[in-house]
Amino acid sequence: xALGAQRVDIVQLVLRSVAATVGAGILVGIAVSxxxxxxxxxxxxxxxxxxxxxxxGAYWTAFTSAAIVTIxxxxxxxxxxxxxxxxxxxxxxxxxxxxxxxxxxxxxxKLQSMFGLxxxxxxxxxxxxxxxxxxxxxxxxxxxxxxxxxxxxALKPAALATATLLVTPYLFLYDEMVLAIPVAxxxxxxxxxxxxxxxxxxxxxxxxxxMSFLWVGAPVGLGAxxxxxxxxxxxxxxxxxxxxxxxxxx
Length: 250
Known about the structure:
By secondary structure, this protein is mainly α.
C-alpha cells in the first residue's frame, strides 16, 4: 500500500470522511429546513408557482417575480460554470429523446404515460405522440378553466399536481409520488365535507395500482393518475350539500 498504509487504515479513513461529509450535510439540511419552513409553507399556500396556473389565474406579479428569479438563477449558473454546461444540455437533448422515445432504451413499461402505454402495447411512435398530445392538450384546457373559475383553492393545486403527471410523456413510477399531493387534499376535503360512496374505494384502487407495478410491469401509474383526475373533476362538480348528505348516510 502507498506509504506503508494498511488496507484497513485506508478503509477506516474513507469511512470516517464519508461519515463526516454525510453527517454535516444532514445537519445543514435539517437546519436549513427548520429555518425556512415557515417561509416555504406560506409561499406554497398563498398561490401556485406553476407558470401555466399563474397565467390562468392572472397572478401577474407572481409570474413576473418567478420569471425574474428564473433568469437570475440561469445567469448565476452561467457565471459559475460557464456556457459549456448549457451547450452540452441542448446538445444532448435530442440524443436522449431519440434513446427514450424512439429506441425505447428505458423499456416501455417503465414510462407511466399515455405515450408509454401505447408503445407498451406495440403501437408505433406517431400514434403514441398523437394520443399523448391530445391528452396533454385536453388537460391543459381543463386546468386553465379550473384556475380561472371560482373552484375552491384546495382543488386547484390538486388539479395542478395531477395535470403535471398527465401532460408529460417522460414519466417514471417514482414520479408518481406527486400523487400524494392531490390524494392528501382529497382526503382533507372528504374529512371536512364528507366522502362520496366511491371516493375511498377509488383511492384504494390508486394505491393498489401503484403497488402492482412490481408484479405486472406495465404503465399502471397512468391509470392511477387518471383515477385521481376523475375524482377531482367529480368533486369539483359536486356541491357541499350533496357531500354532506352522502356522509350522513354512511
